[in-house]
Design goal:
By secondary structure, the chain is an alpha+beta fold. It is built from ten helices and 17 strands. The protein starts with 5 loop residues before the first helix and ends with a helix.
């Protein structure tokens, strides 16, 4: 990652408040999230740069060191190991909301070298499932704890010894000096990889890894009101860690199936309703489908084609983390004009042409008529 000034990366002044830094990062992270830019290979790099800048500037102590010494004050004389997984965990950690044991854009933390990998799955929902919430069972292939050694990596019955490199602490400290003074870098022990113990006799089945290929079924409780691109974060259900290390997480990405009637706009649902000329002129009562049960809609007389009528609280529920009510069903009416008519219809239409009310002259603005035209054009 090319070093850049962290304030410039986020587009904030050096005296920006913590809230301004958080808003700036959230905007950039959403714009450059890899899932939203699958065809842009540079989006991932921008996402990681913004997240690295946010990690420093959102921490008062790191920000103070950065303001005084620049990147050397937070890098400790070496580069920051900040990959995409770290960036995703930071984003989900700070922009989540607890949802029944899961997080939407939720949580995660940096683990050690033995930590298992996260597993990403995609869950496709129809609007009916979004409206009610649903429980999904997903089978996935992943690394699981070795059955022979129960994930320890050691041959059953064998003993382990305290790591001679770190003395059982699982970490080592390295002291380095620079122009700015002395820096102490705490890192995982390279000998035991943070376990604090060394294996004398590795498990022959997993060769000391403590894990092996396997399958698992994950139960995902999806709350109502989710939208495409939302994450559900299932902690500890990802791949098993090496030698008893912390397991990874499962990130369940929500996708939406196309609905035959409704188009989703947030919590609102839009549908198209063709009506006849007589319904438009005289008005009518028509049955409208919703995600629950049909409801009656009153079409007022003289409605213009393109007018939108609203059925309140018949749309999708809001997420439990949002303090607002359900959305609406928006019904956009269109006057249906048949391509062919029967002989009797043609006779009656000819008669109607003789007696029907004529439209106003071109350029003449009349009360009511102009408003209907404006509504039809979306003004």
């Amino acid at each position: 990652m090319t070093p850049r000034d962290y304030y410039d990366v986020l587009g904030v002044p050096r005296d920006a408040t913590a809230e301004a830094i958080k808003r700036a990062y959230r905007k950039q992270a959403l714009e450059n999230h890899p899932d939203r830019n699958p065809s842009d290979p540079t989006a991932e790099e921008r996402f990681k740069q913004a997240t690295e800048a946010y990690e420093v500037l959102s921490d008062d102590e790191k920000r103070a060191r950065y303001d005084q010494f620049g990147q050397a004050g937070v890098r400790g004389g070496g580069p920051i190991d900040f990959d995409l997984a770290d960036a995703l965990r930071t984003f989900m950690r700070d922009f989540g909301g607890g949802l029944g044991g899961f997080d939407l854009f939720g949580g995660g933390r940096r683990g050690d070298d033995r930590r298992g990998n996260d597993v990403q799955i995609r869950i496709a929902l129809d609007l009916e499932e979004v409206a009610t919430g649903v429980k999904k069972q997903v089978k996935l292939r992943k690394l699981v704890a070795c059955e022979s050694c129960a994930g320890s990596g050691a041959q059953p019955g064998s003993k382990t010894s305290t790591c001679s490199t770190c003395g059982g602490r699982g970490e080592v400290r390295q002291v380095s000096r620079s122009f700015f003074g002395q820096f102490i870098n705490v890192a995982l022990c390279p000998a035991c990889e943070g376990a604090g113990e060394q294996i004398q006799s590795p498990c022959p089945r997993c060769r000391g890894e403590g894990r092996e290929p396997g399958e698992a079924t994950v139960s995902v409780q999806v709350p109502s009101g989710v939208a495409a691109g939302n994450y559900l974060h299932l902690r500890g259900l990802g791949e098993a860690g090496r030698r008893g290390g912390e397991p990874g997480d499962v990130l369940a990405v929500i996708e939406e199936k196309e609905h035959p009637i409704f188009q989703r706009h947030g919590s609102d649902l839009l549908m198209e309703l063709p009506i006849t000329y007589t319904q438009a002129v005289l008005g009518d009562e028509v049955e409208i489908p919703t995600l629950k049960e049909p409801v009656m809609l009153s079409i007022p007389p003289g409605i213009a084609s393109g007018k939108i009528l609203r059925l309140r609280a018949q749309g999708l529920p809001a997420l439990r983390s949002e303090r607002r009510g359900p959305g609406d069903v928006l019904v956009r009416v269109h006057v249906f004009v048949p391509e062919r008519v029967s002989g009797e219809e043609a006779t009656l239409i000819d008669r109607l042409r003789e007696i029907e009310t004529k439209p106003p002259a071109i350029g003449v603005k009349r009360s009511g008529w102009f408003d209907r035209i404006r509504d039809a054009l979306g003004g």
